[in-house]
Amino acid sequence: MSETFPLATLPETMQSPRVLVIEDDRHVRSLLCDLLALWGYETDAAADGHDGLRCLAERAYAAVVTDLKMPGISGLAVAERVRERTPRTGVIMVTAFAGDLGPDTVRLGLTVLRKPLDFDRLHEAVAHAVAAAAASR
To answer: Residue 112 sits in a domain of what CATH number?
Structure first.
């Protein structure tokens, strides 16, 4: 049975861009949050897709960085919910999966980064997602 969580909408003004990190590996989650904070973003962290959807229901985010394969709800299912409710929120999918994610990446407007992560590419992807979200307000 699938739980349904409403998603918050992006506020009109944002002091500092907020990014949600959804990653089931606590070490990777912590590293991503630390990097994002170093780059000037406020971050929230979720250990799985269910927690991520709860965060999205409570607060608006300029971008979401999510793992693809997680227990419970996959990163693709999270991305689907983000697109349904707040289409201007950038979604960056990080994955160790080497195969093709298929048409979902285009349909959902995802940026896909492969693990091990290139931190420069991650920085660029988050900056682009945040700028696009701000421009669409």
So the answer is: 3.40.50.2300
Alpha helices in 1-137 (DSSP H): 26-38, 49-58, 75-85, 104-107, 119-135
- What's the whole-model pTM score? 0.87
Contact 89, 45 (CB under 8 A): no
Within a domain: residue 4? no
Note down the domain range covering 33: 18-135
Give per-residue pLDDT as tens, 32-56. Answer: 999 999 999 999 999 999 999 999 9
| Residue 5 domain flag | no
* Domain presence at residue 6: no
Spatial separation of the C-alpha atoms in residues 8 and 118, rounded to whole Å? 30
Three-class DSSP category at 102: coil
Contact criterion met (CB below 8 Å) for 90 and 133? yes
CA angle in degrees (0–180, nearest 5) for 93-94-95? 120
Number of domains in the chain: 1
- Structural tokens at position 20: 């949600």
- pLDDT tens digit string along 73-85? 999 999 999 999 8
